[in-house]
Amino acid sequence: MMRLGVLASGSGSNLQAILDACAQKAIPAEVAVVVCNVAGAKALQRAESAGVPAVLLAHGQFPTRDAYDAELVALLRRHQVDLVCLAGFMRLITPVLLSAFQNKVLNIHPSLLPAYPGLHAARKALQAGARVSGCTVHIVDEGTDTGPIVVQAAVPVLDGDTEETLAARILAQEHRCYPRAIALFAQGRVELDGRRVRLRAPQGDPARTLSSPELFD
Ligand code: GAR
Questions:
Q1: What is the average pLDDT value for the chain, to the nearest integer?
Q2: What CATH class does 1-102 carry?
């Protein structure tokens, strides 16, 4: 059973999707700890309701990002976390965390990366006149939303969309993609070929060939 550390700052709907997938045994993983940097965030309540340890680690208490991440690493290790999942964690992380969990930190972003990294991805898609956007689960590297792509889903941009309606349509797909990406890690199917993710065939399949990441419908 892969042990997950989920980091969230806000509503935590992706956290909820992960908690639900674990509870339904849809993925061979369990949430070992939830860490939140914002007091009163709904993500903390969601963790508590699911009976999962929830820790508020407010960044104001730490002099530097490195100091914050060092505490984060200690906390994740105490909970024997195998895979770190950033789920709406609105804070840049440092090499202190990345080197402790090499290629074991995932993030979800509300666009089809490499388009529209950073904040306000749905607004940027609308402003660009894109007809399609989506979401991406990727392995975190030292850039902002630049790491190897694991799972993506495409979402249409509809006439009359606002930032809110588009973001909501994307979010619904995020909730499918994140558990799927975690399952691929938990099943040991993720392999890196340079910057590209290759998926091994499922366990038990003698071929164990490499395939490209999936793009959902
Ligand atoms: C999600 O849309 C996630 O992709 C986005 O924040 C939202 C969190 O929602 N993350 C980023 O924009 C990271 N740059 P949630 O708290 O309900 O899961």
A1: 94
A2: alpha beta
